[in-house]
Design brief:
This protein is an alpha+beta fold. The protein is built from twelve helices and four strands; from the N terminus they run βαβαββαααααααααα. The chain has two domains: 2-77, Glutaredoxin (3-Layer(aba) Sandwich), CATH 3.40.30.10; 87-264, Up-down Bundle (Glutathione S-transferase Yfyf (Class Pi), Chain A, domain 2), CATH 1.20.1050.10. It has helices spanning 11-23, 42-47, 66-77, 87-112, 115-123, 127-135, 139-151, 157-175, 188-202, 215-223, 226-231, 240-264, and strands at residues 2-6, 27-31, 55-58, 61-64. Strands 2-1-3-4 form a four-stranded mixed sheet, covered by helices on one side. β3 (55-58) and β4 (61-64) form a beta hairpin. The longest helix is centred in the middle third of the chain and has 26 residues, at 87-112. Bound molecules: glutathione.
Protein backbone atom coordinates (compact mmCIF):
# COMPACT_ATOMS: atom_id res chain seq x y z
CA UNK A 1 0.00 0.00 0.00
CA UNK A 2 1.15 3.51 -0.81
CA UNK A 3 1.01 5.82 2.20
CA UNK A 4 1.36 9.56 1.65
CA UNK A 5 2.17 11.95 4.48
CA UNK A 6 0.80 15.23 3.21
CA UNK A 7 -0.94 18.49 4.08
CA UNK A 8 -4.18 19.78 2.53
CA UNK A 9 -2.95 22.95 0.80
CA UNK A 10 0.78 22.31 0.60
CA UNK A 11 1.81 22.72 -3.04
CA UNK A 12 4.20 19.77 -2.95
CA UNK A 13 1.47 17.55 -1.52
CA UNK A 14 -0.96 18.78 -4.16
CA UNK A 15 1.35 17.89 -7.01
CA UNK A 16 1.82 14.34 -5.71
CA UNK A 17 -1.93 13.91 -5.15
CA UNK A 18 -2.62 15.12 -8.71
CA UNK A 19 -0.06 12.58 -9.95
CA UNK A 20 -1.61 9.75 -7.92
CA UNK A 21 -5.05 10.63 -9.29
CA UNK A 22 -3.82 10.91 -12.88
CA UNK A 23 -2.12 7.51 -12.61
CA UNK A 24 -5.24 6.03 -10.99
CA UNK A 25 -3.31 4.71 -7.97
CA UNK A 26 -4.81 3.68 -4.64
CA UNK A 27 -3.22 5.30 -1.62
CA UNK A 28 -3.86 6.05 1.99
CA UNK A 29 -3.14 9.41 3.52
CA UNK A 30 -1.70 10.65 6.79
CA UNK A 31 -2.61 14.31 7.07
CA UNK A 32 -0.24 16.67 8.86
CA UNK A 33 -1.27 20.05 10.22
CA UNK A 34 1.67 22.30 9.32
CA UNK A 35 0.30 25.25 11.32
CA UNK A 36 0.21 23.09 14.43
CA UNK A 37 3.77 21.92 13.73
CA UNK A 38 3.09 18.20 13.12
CA UNK A 39 6.04 18.16 10.71
CA UNK A 40 8.49 18.77 13.58
CA UNK A 41 7.45 15.68 15.54
CA UNK A 42 10.42 13.32 16.00
CA UNK A 43 8.50 10.38 14.50
CA UNK A 44 7.87 12.36 11.32
CA UNK A 45 11.41 13.72 11.16
CA UNK A 46 12.64 10.12 11.24
CA UNK A 47 10.94 9.77 7.85
CA UNK A 48 11.65 13.24 6.52
CA UNK A 49 14.64 14.89 8.24
CA UNK A 50 13.87 18.28 6.65
CA UNK A 51 10.46 18.28 8.43
CA UNK A 52 8.55 18.95 5.22
CA UNK A 53 5.74 17.24 3.36
CA UNK A 54 5.18 15.16 1.35
CA UNK A 55 6.70 11.80 2.20
CA UNK A 56 5.69 8.60 0.45
CA UNK A 57 6.11 5.23 2.12
CA UNK A 58 5.77 2.26 -0.21
CA UNK A 59 5.95 -1.05 1.59
CA UNK A 60 8.62 0.27 3.96
CA UNK A 61 10.52 2.23 1.31
CA UNK A 62 10.60 5.94 2.21
CA UNK A 63 10.62 8.39 -0.70
CA UNK A 64 10.96 12.14 -0.08
CA UNK A 65 10.97 15.13 -2.47
CA UNK A 66 7.76 15.63 -4.42
CA UNK A 67 9.36 15.52 -7.87
CA UNK A 68 11.22 12.33 -6.99
CA UNK A 69 7.98 10.82 -5.66
CA UNK A 70 6.25 11.58 -8.97
CA UNK A 71 9.08 10.03 -10.96
CA UNK A 72 9.11 6.98 -8.65
CA UNK A 73 5.35 6.41 -8.95
CA UNK A 74 5.42 6.80 -12.71
CA UNK A 75 8.35 4.40 -13.12
CA UNK A 76 7.15 1.77 -10.64
CA UNK A 77 3.39 1.84 -11.16
CA UNK A 78 2.59 3.63 -14.40
CA UNK A 79 4.92 2.09 -16.95
CA UNK A 80 6.81 5.38 -17.18
CA UNK A 81 3.96 6.81 -19.26
CA UNK A 82 4.29 10.32 -17.83
CA UNK A 83 7.87 10.50 -19.08
CA UNK A 84 8.16 11.61 -22.69
CA UNK A 85 9.79 9.49 -25.38
CA UNK A 86 13.01 10.74 -26.93
CA UNK A 87 16.31 11.84 -25.49
CA UNK A 88 15.85 15.61 -25.65
CA UNK A 89 12.29 15.52 -24.30
CA UNK A 90 13.35 13.31 -21.39
CA UNK A 91 16.20 15.67 -20.49
CA UNK A 92 13.77 18.60 -20.64
CA UNK A 93 11.25 16.77 -18.41
CA UNK A 94 13.94 15.86 -15.86
CA UNK A 95 15.16 19.44 -15.91
CA UNK A 96 11.67 20.62 -14.98
CA UNK A 97 11.61 18.16 -12.08
CA UNK A 98 14.93 19.47 -10.81
CA UNK A 99 13.91 23.10 -11.28
CA UNK A 100 10.92 22.52 -9.03
CA UNK A 101 13.30 23.10 -6.11
CA UNK A 102 13.76 26.71 -7.26
CA UNK A 103 10.14 27.11 -8.32
CA UNK A 104 8.94 25.81 -4.97
CA UNK A 105 11.22 28.27 -3.20
CA UNK A 106 9.76 31.09 -5.31
CA UNK A 107 6.16 30.09 -4.57
CA UNK A 108 7.00 29.70 -0.89
CA UNK A 109 8.43 33.25 -0.91
CA UNK A 110 5.37 34.67 -2.65
CA UNK A 111 3.01 32.88 -0.24
CA UNK A 112 4.75 33.65 3.05
CA UNK A 113 5.54 37.27 2.20
CA UNK A 114 1.83 37.95 1.44
CA UNK A 115 -1.38 36.05 2.26
CA UNK A 116 0.23 33.32 4.40
CA UNK A 117 2.09 36.03 6.31
CA UNK A 118 -1.21 37.73 7.11
CA UNK A 119 -2.63 34.44 8.30
CA UNK A 120 0.37 33.93 10.59
CA UNK A 121 0.31 37.47 11.97
CA UNK A 122 -3.43 37.20 12.67
CA UNK A 123 -2.75 34.66 15.41
CA UNK A 124 0.91 35.27 16.37
CA UNK A 125 3.08 38.09 17.61
CA UNK A 126 6.25 39.25 15.77
CA UNK A 127 8.45 37.34 18.25
CA UNK A 128 6.77 34.10 17.18
CA UNK A 129 8.47 34.29 13.76
CA UNK A 130 11.86 33.90 15.46
CA UNK A 131 10.60 31.00 17.56
CA UNK A 132 9.17 29.30 14.47
CA UNK A 133 12.45 29.78 12.61
CA UNK A 134 14.31 27.92 15.35
CA UNK A 135 12.13 24.84 14.81
CA UNK A 136 13.34 24.35 11.22
CA UNK A 137 16.10 21.70 11.03
CA UNK A 138 17.77 23.73 8.25
CA UNK A 139 18.71 27.11 9.76
CA UNK A 140 18.74 28.81 6.36
CA UNK A 141 15.15 27.71 5.71
CA UNK A 142 14.24 28.97 9.15
CA UNK A 143 15.95 32.31 8.55
CA UNK A 144 14.12 32.67 5.26
CA UNK A 145 10.70 32.02 6.84
CA UNK A 146 11.45 34.55 9.58
CA UNK A 147 12.54 37.17 7.07
CA UNK A 148 9.39 36.70 4.98
CA UNK A 149 7.09 36.89 7.99
CA UNK A 150 8.84 39.95 9.38
CA UNK A 151 9.44 41.95 6.19
CA UNK A 152 6.70 40.81 3.81
CA UNK A 153 7.32 41.88 0.22
CA UNK A 154 10.24 44.07 1.32
CA UNK A 155 12.20 40.84 1.87
CA UNK A 156 15.33 40.40 -0.25
CA UNK A 157 14.07 36.91 -1.14
CA UNK A 158 11.57 38.52 -3.53
CA UNK A 159 14.14 39.08 -6.27
CA UNK A 160 15.19 35.43 -6.16
CA UNK A 161 11.52 34.43 -6.42
CA UNK A 162 11.04 36.74 -9.41
CA UNK A 163 14.11 35.26 -11.11
CA UNK A 164 12.90 31.66 -10.87
CA UNK A 165 9.21 32.33 -11.40
CA UNK A 166 10.08 34.47 -14.41
CA UNK A 167 12.23 31.73 -15.94
CA UNK A 168 9.51 29.20 -15.24
CA UNK A 169 6.73 31.07 -17.00
CA UNK A 170 8.99 32.16 -19.89
CA UNK A 171 10.04 28.56 -20.50
CA UNK A 172 6.52 27.19 -20.10
CA UNK A 173 5.37 29.75 -22.64
CA UNK A 174 8.15 28.75 -25.05
CA UNK A 175 7.54 25.00 -24.65
CA UNK A 176 3.73 24.99 -24.71
CA UNK A 177 3.30 24.43 -28.45
CA UNK A 178 0.39 22.05 -27.77
CA UNK A 179 -2.10 21.78 -24.92
CA UNK A 180 0.44 20.32 -22.48
CA UNK A 181 4.17 20.37 -21.94
CA UNK A 182 3.84 16.61 -22.40
CA UNK A 183 2.16 17.08 -25.81
CA UNK A 184 -1.42 15.91 -26.30
CA UNK A 185 -1.76 14.62 -22.73
CA UNK A 186 -0.32 15.87 -19.42
CA UNK A 187 3.21 14.65 -18.86
CA UNK A 188 5.38 14.60 -15.76
CA UNK A 189 6.39 18.27 -16.16
CA UNK A 190 2.74 19.32 -16.31
CA UNK A 191 2.01 17.40 -13.11
CA UNK A 192 5.12 18.79 -11.43
CA UNK A 193 4.13 22.39 -12.19
CA UNK A 194 0.35 22.52 -11.77
CA UNK A 195 0.26 23.17 -8.02
CA UNK A 196 2.81 26.01 -8.19
CA UNK A 197 1.01 27.88 -10.97
CA UNK A 198 -2.32 27.18 -9.27
CA UNK A 199 -1.07 28.67 -5.96
CA UNK A 200 0.15 31.86 -7.66
CA UNK A 201 -3.21 32.18 -9.36
CA UNK A 202 -5.08 31.54 -6.09
CA UNK A 203 -3.05 34.32 -4.47
CA UNK A 204 -4.46 36.62 -7.15
CA UNK A 205 -1.07 37.02 -8.85
CA UNK A 206 -1.98 35.78 -12.36
CA UNK A 207 -0.72 39.19 -13.54
CA UNK A 208 2.75 37.60 -13.50
CA UNK A 209 1.84 35.86 -16.76
CA UNK A 210 -0.38 38.55 -18.30
CA UNK A 211 2.02 38.74 -21.26
CA UNK A 212 2.56 34.97 -21.47
CA UNK A 213 -0.69 33.85 -23.13
CA UNK A 214 -0.14 30.08 -22.96
CA UNK A 215 -0.14 29.88 -19.14
CA UNK A 216 -3.75 30.78 -18.21
CA UNK A 217 -5.32 28.31 -20.72
CA UNK A 218 -2.92 25.59 -19.51
CA UNK A 219 -4.09 26.14 -15.92
CA UNK A 220 -7.74 26.30 -17.05
CA UNK A 221 -7.24 22.98 -18.86
CA UNK A 222 -5.88 21.43 -15.66
CA UNK A 223 -8.89 22.71 -13.70
CA UNK A 224 -11.18 20.74 -16.00
CA UNK A 225 -9.52 17.43 -15.10
CA UNK A 226 -10.66 14.91 -12.46
CA UNK A 227 -7.03 14.71 -11.26
CA UNK A 228 -7.08 18.42 -10.36
CA UNK A 229 -10.45 18.03 -8.62
CA UNK A 230 -9.16 15.06 -6.60
CA UNK A 231 -5.64 16.27 -5.91
CA UNK A 232 -6.15 19.98 -5.29
CA UNK A 233 -9.74 21.18 -5.13
CA UNK A 234 -11.00 18.44 -2.81
CA UNK A 235 -8.50 19.50 -0.12
CA UNK A 236 -9.11 23.28 -0.10
CA UNK A 237 -10.86 24.09 3.21
CA UNK A 238 -14.23 25.81 2.73
CA UNK A 239 -13.90 29.60 2.70
CA UNK A 240 -10.10 29.61 2.56
CA UNK A 241 -9.89 30.23 -1.20
CA UNK A 242 -11.67 33.58 -0.87
CA UNK A 243 -9.55 34.57 2.11
CA UNK A 244 -6.31 33.76 0.27
CA UNK A 245 -7.35 35.71 -2.82
CA UNK A 246 -8.52 38.72 -0.79
CA UNK A 247 -5.30 38.80 1.24
CA UNK A 248 -3.15 38.38 -1.87
CA UNK A 249 -5.04 41.16 -3.64
CA UNK A 250 -3.95 43.63 -0.95
CA UNK A 251 -0.32 42.94 -1.87
CA UNK A 252 -0.69 42.77 -5.66
CA UNK A 253 -0.29 46.48 -6.58
CA UNK A 254 3.02 46.77 -4.71
CA UNK A 255 4.15 43.35 -5.85
CA UNK A 256 3.30 44.14 -9.48
CA UNK A 257 5.35 47.34 -9.29
CA UNK A 258 8.38 45.43 -7.94
CA UNK A 259 7.92 42.73 -10.58
CA UNK A 260 7.76 45.31 -13.38
CA UNK A 261 10.96 46.93 -12.13
CA UNK A 262 12.65 43.53 -11.89
CA UNK A 263 11.62 42.51 -15.42
CA UNK A 264 12.75 45.86 -16.80
CA UNK A 265 16.19 45.02 -15.38
N1 LIG B 1 11.60 20.17 -2.09
C1 LIG B 1 10.57 19.67 -1.21
C2 LIG B 1 9.89 20.83 -0.53
C3 LIG B 1 8.94 20.37 0.53
C4 LIG B 1 8.34 21.52 1.30
O1 LIG B 1 9.02 22.54 1.57
N2 LIG B 1 7.09 21.35 1.72
C5 LIG B 1 6.40 22.38 2.46
C6 LIG B 1 4.94 22.40 2.07
S1 LIG B 1 4.73 22.71 0.32
C7 LIG B 1 6.47 22.09 3.94
O2 LIG B 1 6.32 20.96 4.34
N3 LIG B 1 6.70 23.12 4.76
C8 LIG B 1 6.81 22.93 6.17
C9 LIG B 1 6.68 24.21 6.92
O3 LIG B 1 6.23 25.20 6.34
O4 LIG B 1 7.01 24.20 8.12
C10 LIG B 1 9.58 18.82 -2.02
O5 LIG B 1 9.37 19.13 -3.21
O6 LIG B 1 9.04 17.83 -1.50
Amino acid sequence: MLTLYHAPTSVCSQKVRVGLALMGLEWEGRLLDLQRGDQFAPEYRALNPDAVVPTLVDDGLVVVESSLILEYLDAEYNGGRLMPAGRAARVAARHWLLRCLHIHAAVNTLSFSTAYRERFLASHGPEDAAALARRFPDPIMGAKRRDLLEKGIESAYLDQAFLHLGRCIDDMQAQLSGPWLGGEAPGIADVALVAYIDRIDRLGFAGFWADRPAIAPWLARWRETPAYAEGIEAFIPPGSADQTRAAGARYWPALAARWAAFRAG
